[in-house]
Known about the structure:
The chain is of the alpha+beta class. The chain has helices at about 80-85, 125-135, 190-200, 215-225, 245-255, 275-284; strands spanning about 5-15, 15-25, 50, 55, 65-70, 75, 90-100, 110-115, 140-145, 150-160, 160-165. Strand 5 (about 65-70) and strand 6 (about 75) form a beta hairpin.
Amino acid sequence: MPPRALWKGSISFGLVTIPINLVSAAEPRETLAFNLLHRKDKSRIVEKRFCQREDVEVPWNDIVKGYQYAKDQYVVITDEDFDRVRVPATQTFEIRKFVPAADVEDLYFNAPYYATPQGRSATKGYALLRDALRAAGRLAIGTIVLRQREHLAALEPADNALVLTTMRFAHEIRPQKDLDLPSGKGWSESEMKLARQLVDTLSGAWNPTEYRDTYSDALRKVIEAKVKGKDTAVPERPAPAKVTDLMEALKRSLNERPRELAGAPGRRHLRSRKSARGRRHRAA
């Protein structure tokens, strides 16, 4: 069964309109959820809403939303207030600009969606835009309204698909000047040479299926064992290597890695199926 479309509308640039559907690019997965229990009898703990001033429980119909504009000073915001500022739910991803993919940092990107053509009449325009973006190495930047909120978004090719990824606005990104970061290089050329060798040794082709959520897998095994009344042994954690000298750490890392990794056939250029954004660091 094909995935359900989360949004139906169109891509718009100039006088061109391409009807599309948006489908989440991330598969839903089972998550481990836990409840709070009373240790004594394992009954559920229920959270209640109390008024701090009167110390009484408050029913939902007596609860309103308030914004604290000063200490202990609130203004109540009603549903009508939210409606006044709600962005009209337009059904168009309006492209504002085509920008070089190499110019957009990854930290701006948020949630990805597959954009699929809506009907046979949309396939030609869809394929044309996809291939034009790939040939130009550019992203289509625009705005889209999802769930009554306007999002900045980028459209880019990935294999045969166009992927629309919602983005963070500039004011949502913490400036680096607020961080304590080294300004100079602070390393020697010999240290850099060893670091590059270590990078080469650990290099390989990107294969996302090699990685799993091992923490959740292990936790699920513990839960299954406890349901059956069994207990599980606590694995011994390896002690971290006590190496304080950077040069020594680099040399030991190189010596302890299997030498065959350095010449493994997996070390090759990423295939052309990667998106333009995935290639931009190599182009920079």
